[in-house]
Specification:
Order of helices and strands: HEHEHEEEHEEHHEHHEEHHHEEEEEEHH
Strand order of the largest sheet: 5-6-7-2-14-13-12
Distance between the termini: 55 Å
Shape: globular
Structural class: alpha+beta
Length: about 475
């Protein structure tokens, strides 16, 4: 991809989801998220910096600023191809979470990188504003970065291949095919959208109970950005969980959702037995990419689906799983995340309504938690990278593990992620930096892991 193709793209109008991300961005709750990759080996600085510059050039929204016009609309404008925001540190240096997590897209591009290394390993942390791209887009960036670095450091035949990207596809990043279920007309779909919005408003979810739901007076140890805690299941354990899901005609994602609902219920009842709440809601991001996005650089092509259950529903995990299985199947088949974008679009047609709604309702709890299940991480790479013993090789580096975090909204005090790599399922958690102590976040993750572990061997036990 040549720089002139990137320059011809701008100015590029913001799409609906990008405008929403900017409206939802707050100094204390920025819409920024991160990936942290652990490599065996040490990075060669010159090769890495050259690879990073090439990667940012390939993905125009990583070197763009937001410029607002007089009518309140916004466009992406090219910030130029200067050196990306890159910080080198030793392994014992901390990254301040508050500063790292805040990005003002009107003044700086929405992409930052840290490299922290010791004698044997290297951590590469990528942070991006959610208006620039989604989690799949950031994985695409990481894959390109590894491939570009590998091309500079590989020896022999184990050389990566960078895919050709089409900048013009960014113009269609918010263009999705709307499939109306058979037998339903557009009026019925509009009515169903309004009903879903009414249910969403009329069933306010209970947050995860965090002491007083206010900042604690206890001194909170500074969290090292990105503040992710994680647990990896072995390849054998992951296979057994998949088998347990298949036994129930469900997917691994259905099990992850079911056990997260139960975990949230158990946590709230243990932390505050007198007020466990009534409704629980999980925000489940949905990938909306279609064939015309196949060679698109990193961008947002997603929406959100919300699954809501009563606390009482968690008392019967098998019935809960069956209901979630049917609901997630409908979400996938009919791409029901488009209902969320449809609701935003309807609000935006009334001048000032979306901005006013965000101002009035923006600090309410919209979801108890969020679960971002990215699936097999490496399937999200558009670059082709060699493997050794099931793990990605990037020149003189071997990718050992990969963890990520979602951005968090007000009163969504912790979010969860999931993904598989080299056959191993890893679940992650990240808490509100100001309100959730690291030890409590670890305890919450252990509770979730214990629930998931109960599925191991379940297929065999059920006959």
């Amino acid at each position: 991809m040549c720089p002139s193709a990137s320059k011809a793209l701008f100015p590029l109008p913001l799409n609906l989801f990008e405008r929403y991300m900017l409206l939802d961005d707050r100094p204390d709750y920025p819409m920024t998220f991160a990936l942290q990759a652990r490599f065996m080996g040490q990075v060669r600085p010159a090769a890495f910096e050259a690879a990073l510059e090439e990667t940012v050039e390939r993905h125009p929204l990583l070197h763009a600023l937001v410029e607002m016009n007089a009518r309140g609309g916004g466009v992406w404008v090219d910030a130029g191809l200067g050196s990306p925001a890159l910080t080198w540190q030793n392994a014992n240096s901390a990254i301040d979470s508050t500063a790292a997590n805040r990005i003002d897209l009107r003044r700086e591009p929405g992409f930052r990188v840290w490299v922290r290394q010791d004698a044997d390993s290297t951590d590469v942390i990528l942070a991006v504003h959610h208006a620039c791209c989604d989690g799949i887009g950031l994985l695409q960036v990481l894959g390109d970065l590894m491939a570009s670095y590998g091309l500079r450091t590989a020896t022999g035949d184990a050389r990566p291949v960078l895919a050709r990207l089409d900048v013009a596809q960014l113009a269609a990043r918010g263009r999705f095919t709307v499939e109306i279920p058979e037998g339903l007309g557009r009026i019925r779909v509009l009515w169903d959208t309004l009903k879903e919005a009414a249910k969403w408003i009329g069933r306010p979810p209970t947050p995860l109970w965090i002491s007083g739901e206010e900042k604690s007076n206890e001194p909170t140890p500074p969290l090292n950005y990105p503040g992710i805690v994680f647990h990896s299941f072995s390849e054998a354990e992951t296979r057994q969980m998949r088998a347990a899901a298949r036994k129930r005609n469900a997917t691994l994602n259905d099990l992850l959702l079911r056990d997260l609902f139960v975990t949230c219920s158990q946590w709230n009842q243990a932390e505050h037995p007198g007020r466990p709440g009534r409704w629980l809601r999980i925000n489940m991001p949905q990938n909306l990419r279609e064939r015309h996005h196949d060679r698109m650089p990193a961008a947002n092509a997603m929406s959100q689906a919300f699954l809501t259950r009563q606390v009482a529903d968690c008392a019967d995990p098998e019935l809960l799983l069956d209901g979630l299985r049917r609901e997630t199947e409908a979400i996938r088949r009919w791409r029901l995340g488009l209902y969320f974008l449809g609701g935003l679009s309807m609000a935006e047609r009334i001048p000032g309504a979306l901005r006013l709604g965000m101002a009035l309702l923006g600090r309410q709890c919209h979801a108890t938690t969020v679960l971002t299940n990215i699936g097999e991480f490496t399937r999200r790479f558009t670059a082709r990278l060699p493997r050794r013993n099931g793990r990605i090789v990037a020149g003189d580096l071997i990718l050992e593990r990969l963890v990520g975090m979602p951005p968090l909204r007000p009163k969504t005090y912790a979010g969860f992620g999931a993904g598989t790599y080299a056959g191993e399922l890893t679940v992650t958690a990240r808490g509100d930096f100001d309100r959730v102590r690291a030890d409590r976040l670890e305890r919450l993750l252990r509770l979730y892991v214990a629930r998931l572990s109960a599925n191991i061997g379940a297929a065999d036990r059920s006959g």
